[in-house]
Amino acid sequence: MERAFYVVEFLGLMFVWAVGLLALVAVILFIIDRSQTQDAIRRNYPVIGRFRHIFSELGEFFRQYFFAMDREEMPFNRAQREWIGRASSGKSNSIAFGSTRNTSVPGTPIFANAPFPPLDDEFAKSEPLLIGPTARHPYAAPSFFNISGMSYGALSRPAVTALSKGAAKAGVWLNTGEGGMSPFHLEGNCDIVYQIGTAKYGVRDAEGNLSEDRLKEVAAAPQVKMIELKLAQGAKPGKGGILPAAKVNSEIAKIRGIPEGQPSLSPNRHREVDSFSSLLDFVAHLREVSGLPVGIKTVAGSRVVLEEMFEAFAARPDDVPDFITIDGGEGGTGAAPMPLMDLVGMSVREALPMLADLRKSYGFQDRIRLIASGKLVNPGDVAWALAAGADFVTSARGFMFSLGCIQALKCNKNTCPTGITTHDPRFQKGLVVEDKYKKVARYAEGIISDVETIAHSVGVSEPRKLRRHHVRIVGDAGKSEPLGDVLAR
C-alpha cells in the first residue's frame, strides 16, 4: 500500500514537472517568436503560429491523397506561391523528379527550345528602354519587370516602405497606386510612377478637379519618373473606389488632399474624359504640365473599341500616351464587387496580343510602350507577356507574396494576419521592413534571372528578343501550335 502511494506521488510530481517544462518551453518560444523579424505569422501569433508551418510541411504528403494538388488552388496555386517564397528567400528554385504541371491543358504555353542556345559568354542583360521620347524628361526604364500600383491606405506603412526599399535595391520602379504619394513611397529612393485615379488623390483641388500646382509639385520630386492616368482596373472596370470615413485620418487626408474624417468616393471615370479625343487632350495637358512621360492604364472590353482608340491616335500622333498599361480582367484589388471581379474585362492573355498587333499596324511600335499587368507573377508568365508583345510587365500580388502574403483573402477587412493590408498596429508589427525589403528585391531579381534563363533556352541573348514563334500554345487535342498561328485565326 505504501509502495503504491509513493508511485502515485512520483507520477504526480512527474506530471507537475512535465506541465512546468511545457510552460517554460512555451514561454521561451513566445519570446523567440515575438522577437524574431523574418516571419510575420509567428511574430503576430507566437507559438500557435508555428503550427501553420508544421501543417504546411505535412500537407505536402496529405494533399496527395485527400486535398488539392499544388496547381489546383485559386486565385494563385501553391506552386506559384512557393516559387515566389523560395525566390524571395534567396533559396534555389530547382526541383526534383519531374514537373507537377499538366502540360496537356488547352491554353498552356510551352517555350520552344533552341537546338544551339547561346553560350555562357553570349548572354546579355536587357538594356534600359526609353519611354516618352517627346516629353521634357523622358524615362530610360532599367527593368522589364516592375511593381504595379498599390496605394498607401490599401497597403500598410511598413508594406509600402518595404516595397520602396526593395524596388531601389533591385532597380525596378514602384507605382504609387491611385492613393497619392506618401513619404513611405519615397523612403527607399526608388523610381516612382505616379498614378492618377479618378479622384485625383494628391493632385486635386478642394472640388476634386486637377490641381496643376499640386501636379507640378509631384512631378518635381526627382524620384517621380512617369505619370499613369488610370482609366480602369482589371478587378473592377467602371467602378470607383470608396474610402470610408474611418480610414480618412489626418495623415491620409493630407496625402490624398481630402477632408479628414469624411468618406471619399471616387468617380467611376475621369470627368474630363468622355471620348478618345478628350482623353488625348488630357494626356497632352498632363505631359505639358508635368514634363514627364504620361501613359494610361485600362482594361480591354472589345477589339472594336481598341481599334477606335488607335484611329484616334493616328489622327493626333503628337498627343498619344507614352505608354499603355493593359490590365487583365483577372487582376486583383483590395475590394471589388464580385460581378466585376468575376465577369467584366478581357483577360490579359487575350487583350495583350490584340493591343500589340494594333500598335504595330498603326505604326506606334517605337512611340507607345506596352505594359502588361494581371496575374503575371512567375517567370513563365512574364516571358509569355514579353513574347506576346509587352515591353514591360508589372505585378502587384507577386510582390505581396514576397512580403509574406499567405492569401488569407482578408485585404478588405483590416485584419490581414501578415500586416500587409492592415492599419492595425497589432498586425503591422509582424512585417519587419529590414527583412521584407530584401525579399522584395530578391523576388524581382529572381524573376528577371529566370526569364533570362527562358530567353537563353529558346536561343536569344536577352528577354526583350522573345517573339511569338518562341511560344507554343496547347490546343484542345493536346497538340501545341505556335502562338502566332493561334492568334492569326
TrEMBL record:
<comment type="similarity">
    <text>Belongs to the glutamate synthase family.</text>
</comment>
<keyword id="KW-0472">Membrane</keyword>
<dbReference type="InterPro" id="IPR013785">
    <property type="entry name" value="Aldolase_TIM"/>
</dbReference>
<feature type="domain" description="Glutamate synthase">
    <location>
        <begin position="143"/>
        <end position="460"/>
    </location>
</feature>
<dbReference type="InterPro" id="IPR024188">
    <property type="entry name" value="GltB"/>
</dbReference>
<feature type="transmembrane region" description="Helical">
    <location>
        <begin position="6"/>
        <end position="32"/>
    </location>
</feature>
<dbReference type="Pfam" id="PF01645">
    <property type="entry name" value="Glu_synthase"/>
</dbReference>
<dbReference type="InterPro" id="IPR002932">
    <property type="entry name" value="Glu_synthdom"/>
</dbReference>
<dbReference type="GO" id="GO:0006537">
    <property type="term" value="P:glutamate biosynthetic process"/>
</dbReference>
<keyword id="KW-0812">Transmembrane</keyword>
<dbReference type="GO" id="GO:0015930">
    <property type="term" value="F:glutamate synthase activity"/>
</dbReference>
<protein>
    <submittedName>
        <fullName>FMN-binding glutamate synthase family protein</fullName>
    </submittedName>
</protein>
<keyword id="KW-1133">Transmembrane helix</keyword>
